[in-house]
Amino acid sequence: MKRRDFMALSVAALTLPRAGFAASTMTLPDAKLTMLSDGNLTLPGDFVLAGLDATEAAGIRQKFNLDPDSYTPPCNLTLYQDGTRNVLFDVGAGPDFMPSAGKLEAALAAAGLSHDDITHVVFTHAHPDHLWGLLDDFDDPKFANAEYLMGRAEFDYWMDPNTVHTIGDARASFAVGAARRLEVIADQLQFFADGEEPLAGITARLTPGHTPGHMAFILGGKVLVTGDAISNDHLAFLRPDAASPSDQDPDLAAATRVSLLDQITADQLVIAGFHLPGGLGHATRDGDSYTYIEG
Ligand SMILES: [Zn+2]
After folding, report:
1. Cys-Cys link to 125, which of 200, 214, 223, 257 (CB 3.0-4.6 A)?
2. What are the pLDDT digits (tens) for 189-246?
């Protein structure tokens, strides 16, 4: 029996949950967007705010009703369907990162899809919650019929054997995990650079700082897939210029955020946010500060 047949059998034997996924959707002139939940992360309460002085951090916690002990942002994958292509941005965390994440299979099933229906996978960056859902239990790519696309700079960074030694202890496991997975698809990956159109209607925008080669994407001139260039609905909007240890290069990430939010409000882009409540929203501007509005 071929492995694929075995997988098909075992999936068919499962009763996949179909309820409980209130996916947000929107319609573009030529495509449909669906936000698929991969669950949520479970992180320390100061994950985003640790760079601020205590008074400002306490003010933000109070304003946004944040738990000081635990931070549990949602993980929302963007699915872009134009009738012929089912394009998935990032692949979620898979089973090996944290128990609260890696729920994509159920979300796909709720949308009437399986991994095999995905025609293209486009990566924002190679962090665990965005990449580690790539492989199955046999270490084969889960999306058997998909083309894989990634920014060249992001790929080169994680495949560089020096990265594990230079990235710092806190992220060393990210480097090992990324290289192991990217190695599997290295020969089939298609690369793109800032400003290029990796797929028709999808423009890449280099948004470095969270990771060195992080990419955001503009869909049909209307929607910005942010990845983690804007990774929370509180500090990132209220004080986009504030450095956060949740970014690998906090100052560069802050500069990227300031520029991105300026573009989002100037061009009135819808935000498809990986870690933003509801997945889809928009921003309003008040001077140098912004507000995220879900929906
Ligand atoms: Zn993330």
Report:
1. 214
2. 999 999 999 999 999 999 999 999 999 999 999 999 999 999 999 999 999 999 999 9
CA of 231 to the centre of ligand 1 (A): 7
> What are the C-alpha distances in Å from 174 to residues 39, 42, 99, 156?
19, 16, 17, 14
Q: What is the pTM of this model?
A: 0.91
How far is the centre of ligand 1, averaged over its atoms, from the C-alpha of 207 (Å)? Answer: 14
Hey, which residues does 271 pair with through a beta bridge? 224, 281
What's the 182 CA to ligand 1 centre distance in angstroms?
A: 17
Q: Where are the beta strands (DSSP E) in 90-146?
A: 120-122
Q: Are 106 and 17 a contacting pair, CB within 8 Å?
A: yes
DSSP 269: P
Alpha helices in 223-275, H assignment, sequence order? 235-238, 250-266
pLDDT < 50 regions, the chain: 1-20
169 alpha carbon – ligand 1 mean position (Å): 18
Per DSSP, the three-state class of 57 is helix
Q: How far apart are CA 200 and CA 190, in angstroms?
A: 14
